[in-house]
Amino acid sequence: MKILGIETSCDETAIALIETRGEGAPTECKILASLIHSQADLHSKFGGVYPTLAKREHGKNLIPILEKALLKSSLPILRELTDKEYEERARDFQKDIAPQNPELYEAFMNAPFLKSVPNIDRIAVTEGPGLEPALWVGITLAGMLAKLWNIPVLPVNHMEGHVLGSLIDSNIQKGEWQKLKALPLPSLAFLISGGHTEFVSIEKIGSYKIIGQTKDDAVGEAFDKAARLLGLPYPGGPELSKMAEEAESAGLKSLVRLPRPMSNSGDLNFSFSGIKTAVLYALRDLEKEHGQVTIEMKKGLALEFETAVTETLSAKLRMALEQTGSASLVIGGGVSANQRLRKAFESIANEYGIELFLPTKHVSGDNALMIALSGALKPEPLSGSGLKARGTWKIDSK
Ligand code: KG4
Ligand code: ZN
Questions:
Q1: Three-class SS of residue 389?
Q2: Which ligand 1 atom is the nearest neighbour of the CA of 162?
Q3: Which of 98, 258, 268, 374 is the most buried (most CB within 10 A)?
């Protein structure tokens, strides 16, 4: 089966093409193309993702990225649409699409390659969770392609994508078959991103239950906010992490201690808004006491922040593994790129003697490979029509 994946939930515009094979559920996968275009530089001056700008950029960039991905994939063309077929199928786009998505409409209508119908069996698109104006662009494109090429569309939950993305090795190059990693069940997923911090117990693929989550900020959001207070550009997570590493290798110590929020709350929930405020107060106190906050003080504070977050996540993770008796652990979401956290997860998985699934670099942030793979693994029937953006779609609700 050949699947086109489309992802536009936040500030990455991503397209992937994969091929799968296997009896029943796919067991092997070939990455044909997986392209990611980040808008982070554009949003950095706003200190966060600006939804209308994200929407406009997705609209401008999706079609050129799709063209590149199709070229890269070398997928055979099934046939060429005649001018008459093309006009008939695209007839309503001007009325239905152009007013809401002028950039996407214009790019679509100026893309002659779309008249060549590629050999694709289904389209998988992120319906949520995410920023609705951004989600709508990907969903709209999926609907347009479905109509033009007469291919079914399957909606995918972005967080399920982060779970399943950890089962594929994105380092295995285009054109090579790879076995999808088998997930020992029941499994525990720990999803840590800019919008989510949640524990998901997995009975089987497609059957999920959220058993713990943040009450306020997500862990990635806390990284980004703390980074901003330290004067770092958006997205600050990786920048803050770099500072922490520098502090560690220079032997710098933090002059303040930050809280380990909710470590003793007895449940699997998190709260990260307090730690951001603690960083704000720490910077104020340092300035009051020392006249200024030096770069060394900032580096020490970055290390203390990363340590506090790692200890908090680790304590809850141990608790979640004990409560669920999980046979494996899957980590997903952009924050999983953090090296200190990866090391902590590795040592916890060792401690419990369970298999750990960490995403490779390409799939740790937002990407369409994980969306295409989710579309391939979905046992549910194809929905086909009536797609809509679902900004707050939970992984455990239909
Ligand atoms: O999954 P993702 O790409 O987008 C969402 O769906 O939210 O996650 C983005 C988040 C951002 O908050 C970013 O700062 C954080 O992941 N992040 C990191 C690192 N790399 C990305 N946080 C800490 N350390 C990192 N190395
Ligand atoms: Zn994400």
A1: coil
A2: 1
A3: 374
Picking from 193, 260, 189, 262, the residue whose alpha carbon sits closest to that of residue 221 is 193
Pocket test for ligand 1, best of 11, 163, 193, 276 (most atoms within 8 A of CB): 193
Q: What is the pLDDT of residues 275-290, one digit of tens each?
A: 999 999 999 999 999 9
**In angstroms, what is the span from residue 9 Cα to ligand 2's centroid?**
8
- What tokens were used for 326? 């999980």
Q: Among the bound ligands, name the one nearest to the CA of residue 192.
A: 1
The lowest-confidence range among 192-206, 289-303, 328-342, 373-387 is 373-387
Give Cα 177 to chain centroid, integer Å: 24
Separation between Cα atoms, residue 188 and residue 345, nearest integer Å: 12
Q: Average of pLDDT values for 305-328?
A: 98
Give the whole-angstrom CA distance, residue 202 versus residue 189: 7
* Listed residue (318, 311, 319, 10) closest to 159, CA to CA: 10
Query: What is the 89 CA–ligand 1 centroid distance (Å)?
Result: 39
Please report the sign of the dihedral spanned by the C-alpha atoms of residue 21, residue 27, residue 33, residue 36: positive
Contact 275, 263 (CB under 8 A): no
Give 259 Cα–ligand 1 centroid separation in angstroms: 21
Atom 23 of ligand 1 has which residue's CA nearest to it?
A: 237
Pocket of ligand 1 (CB under 6 A): 10, 193-195, 220, 223-224, 235-238, 241, 333-335, 337-338, 365-366
How does 132-145 read in b/e, with b if 16+ C-beta sit within 10 Å?
bbbbbbbbbbbbbb
